[in-house]
Amino acid sequence: MKISVCSVATTKSLKEFELLKFTFEQYHEADWFVASDDYAAKALEKYDNVTIINSIKTDDCSHGVNDPVKNRLFLELIMTKFDVMELAIEKNGYGLFLDSDIFFTNALEDRFLKLLLDPDVDAILSPHMTNNLALETQVGHYNVGFFAVRNIDYLRQHREMSWKSKEFGMYYEQQPLQFTSYEYLTVNAPIYYNIGWWRFNESHNQQRLQFLEVADDRVCFMGRPAVCFHVHTMKSLDYNNQGKFLVDKVFKLMSTTKNKKYGDLFAFVNGLIDESK
To answer: Angle 249-241-250 (CA atoms, 0-180°, nearest 5)?
Structure first.
């Protein structure tokens, strides 16, 4: 099965997207739809399975600093995800969106793949699962860096509300995903998908780190194969990388295995580092 998958790649995030693409394709065939700037578009021309929408004017933006101009430019950048998602849905009937700062350590389950094709499921969402409801009230219950949509009306409603997020007092395009979901039939990906640093970074959830382990030469979380991790690995940030501890933990676990895919991942990462020297 060739999976219809979407992302955003820019000058600053290109290396992380390359890692996402490499690790995803270690387990699955993919038909990519990518929003980009000029630099990334040129770099991605070499791939015959990537459809590029070159619509990003600048990636000199951020949501991690208190700068209204950079915050607005960040919104404009991330809103391009709706363009690639809509294109994927029109071509393949659905789109799986993945932020560029994700890397895969195991395959998507067959039951997840079946849900992607289920006409009765409007979307697959990924709860933050921070166990901090006060925080999620501010930023949204679902992570917008990992979600799949079949229903084009849902996607368009999400886009419309996201453009008005500041007017509604909502957090970028993420919190609108929660409110638009109320009108549609959605399912949740389990905790061993989209394993973000935010699930481990507070005193009440740090104990979860003990559930990251190696079994049968695969990284597992809570006894199940850990599908993918959501954390910056290679991008230069203008704020502290709060997820570095998770990168260090997962990479160390992978290094203790004889898993060839993990060895290939390390070789690929080292190649990307050498390119930037």
So the answer is: 15
Q: 3-state DSSP call for residue 191?
A: coil
Average of per-residue pLDDT across 62-83: 83
Give the single-character DSSP code of 27: T
| Non-local CB neighbours of 214 within 8 Å, separated by 6+ positions | 220, 253, 256, 257
CA proximity to 109, closest of 1, 259, 216: 1
pTM (predicted TM-score): 0.96
> What is the side-by-side strand order in the sheet with 195-196?
102-104, 228-230, 195-196
Q: Is 233 helix (H, G, I), strand (E, B) or coil?
A: coil
Helical H segments across 118-239, by residue range: 133-139, 152-163, 165-168, 174-181
CA atoms within 13 A on the CB side of 158: 32
Per-residue pLDDT reduced to its tens digit, 239-264: 788 999 999 999 999 999 999 999 99
**Local confidence band at 202 (pLDDT 50, 70, 90 cut-offs):** very high
Residue with token string 């998908």? 193
Q: Which residues contact 195 (CB under 8 A, 6 or more apart)?
A: 221, 226, 227, 228, 229, 230, 246
